[in-house]
Task: structure prediction
Amino acid sequence: MKETSRYQKQILFSGVGTRGQQALGAAKVLLVGCGALGCVLADSMARAGVGLIRIVDRDFVEFSNLQRQVLFTEDDVAAHLPKSIAAVNRLRSVNSEILLESVVADVDYTNIRQLAEGVDLILDGTDNFEIRYLINDVSLETGIPWIFTGCTGSHGQMMPVFPGTSACLRCLIPNPPPPGSTETCDTAGVLGPAINVIASLQAAMALKILTAASAGKTAVESVPLKLTMVDVWDLTFRQIDVSQLRESADCPACKGSERLWLNGSQTAGSTVLCGRNAVQVSPGEKTRLSLEELANRLATVGKVTSNPFLVRLAVADSKLELTVFADGRAIIKGTEDPAVARSAYSRYIGT
Result:
């Protein structure tokens, strides 16, 4: 630690202490998703002095994010900055002693192993089950623990996963909920305080896991194996003991080594983005675009703006707006129909 006075109050807390702070300084964390949950998690980890934080997000900052995504500003919206870039820019001004890595990418089965390489813990800052099941698969495959977290409306939930020891996500929810069967931020909205509460609980749990060895405990001994549910509107707090769930559940992932999401058999080429009137379209194969060339080519189609991370096209005489990233992904705004989005992708960007 270069400057222990930064962490003085945290070191005074008996649960951390000097040894715990040293453990945090040596720790490496992967944060998947830097939206509402991810902003609180990234900020908490950076201020706590976690040595390396790798922040991965596929999206860019919009005005609708500012109600609850606490790392971003109107300047980030105006600059069309990707969320991971904007987050790291902010956090570097908060803590210059730690390593911060920004990755602008859609986390999928082709890159999650590389993203998780060398980390001690994976934090869930996502907003969809497909990526959570993918995180669950890579956690079981690599032995890296992770913390499942979600938030909709006024309520949030979280559960730690220790591969081979505790219940995994598929022990709790064997398959993704069918479309339309659960609330989403489109149907129920989301309250900023609910995000802050559940993400802060996740951050506290992360600190306990990362400092466990310094207190003479294993990571799994450091936190209760429970599903925690909070509703900030009703002011309710519930916990369900899941310590025996792994033994009682006939989980194909834990007991049968099934990795449907990690092997790519469960994946989608397009994703409707929550609350955005937008669809993300990904190319069939990974690519690397020249954003400068793309911007020049699209200039005849409509209004084009760009920065080093993306190109944005507002199609003339249309409600569609395409934001294209260097990895070939595009977020098509103005529709929630994947077929319309894929057609626009093919028309303006190519197959």
Q: What stands out?
A: The chain has two domains: 4-248, 270-348.
